[in-house]
Each structure stands twice: as structure tokens, then as C-alpha cells.
Design brief:
By secondary structure, the protein is mostly helical. It has one domain. α1 packs across α6 and α8 runs antiparallel to α9. The protein is globular.
Amino acid sequence: MHPVAHFPLPNWFDFIATFLFAIAGTLLAIRKGYDIVGVFTVAFVSSVGGGLIRDGLFLQQGPPAITTNGDYWLIILLGCLLGILFQNAMNRLKFMIVLFDALGLGAYAIVGIEKAQAAGLAFPAMILVGIVNAVGGGIFRDILTREEPLLFRPGQFYVAVTFVGCLLFAGLINWKIMGNLEAGIITIAVTFTLRALAIRYNWQTTSLAEKPASLKESSKAVQ
């Protein structure tokens, strides 16, 4: 029996994505008026929150990578400091953040699914862990900053794209249609394309009902 060829997520990709997401979290926290502790906390959860939720809540297979690899701390700290010192210049990185985010949806979904598969989780749980790994940092960030999580709000296809990618990858490897490496390449290509099209043509989900007036008023008060 040949060993399974797992999808190899390059360290450089992981580090660049962590760095850019830390900057994005920093800029958001600055706009919210947070102090240095709040800024670093939002930067931290924005960049590695998905992995923390995955390992701490679902898999429980030892300490998360963030606690065993000091490089992540240095990268997050660097992103946080640069975001604070060069706010205007860092705002120009939004395109790069969106680009890596679109690539990262598929890549991090794959990582989550492979870890769930190795832990012996059922097919639906594999998809759930994949989604959490890909978008969990954003959910964690929104909760801390008192925003409605993107997962719940009508908007451009994001979680829906991640779900399609997770379903595709989990299906391809679970039913042994192809190996993890080939399935991973296809999944990243599909999720990136769908996300890019959603941004280009502004494909959006819609609310199932109009927001009640009381909630509209409370949301204005929070803002």
C-alpha cells in the first residue's frame, strides 16, 4: 500500500498569508480605536484564529502550530508593527490581501480536511473542519470586534465558495477519485476562480427576510 501524498502547503505561503492577515487585522483594530493590546489581539486572531479553533475545538491532537513554532509570533508581531507605523502605505496592500485570501480559501480548507481525515472524522465533519480552518480567523475576529460574523451576513460569495471547495476536495479524496495532491491543486484552482468571479461580478447571497427595524436601530447604535 502506497503512502498518501498529502497536499504540501509551502511554508512561505503560510507565512506570507499570516503576515498579510495580521496587517489586515491591525488596520481594522486601528480603525476601531483599540489600544496596542487590542490591536495585537485582533491581528493575532485574524491570522491564526482558524487553526486555533480547528485544533482546540475539533481535533484536540496536541498544541496548535502557533504554540510550537515561534516564527508565527514574529511574523504576526512584524505585521502588527508595520500596520501601526505605516497605516497609509499598508492600506495599499489590500489587493495583495484579497489575492492571498482567495488562494488561501482553498489551501487552508485542504489543510483542515486532511487533518480531519487523519483524525478519523466523518465526511460532514471533514467539511466543517475545512471551512473553519479557512474562515475561522475572520469569525473569531468579528466576534471580538463586535461585528456580525461574515458567515451570517448577506454579501459576496465567500463561505459558499469555501463550502464548494471543501465538498470538492473531501469528495475527491474520500471516494479515492484521485490523490490528495492532484485533488488539492484542482480545489485551489476552483475556489480561487469562484472567489475571483464573485469579486469581479459582485455575486452575492441575499437575506431571507428584511432586517427588523429594532435590529437596524441597535446595529446603528453599535456603529
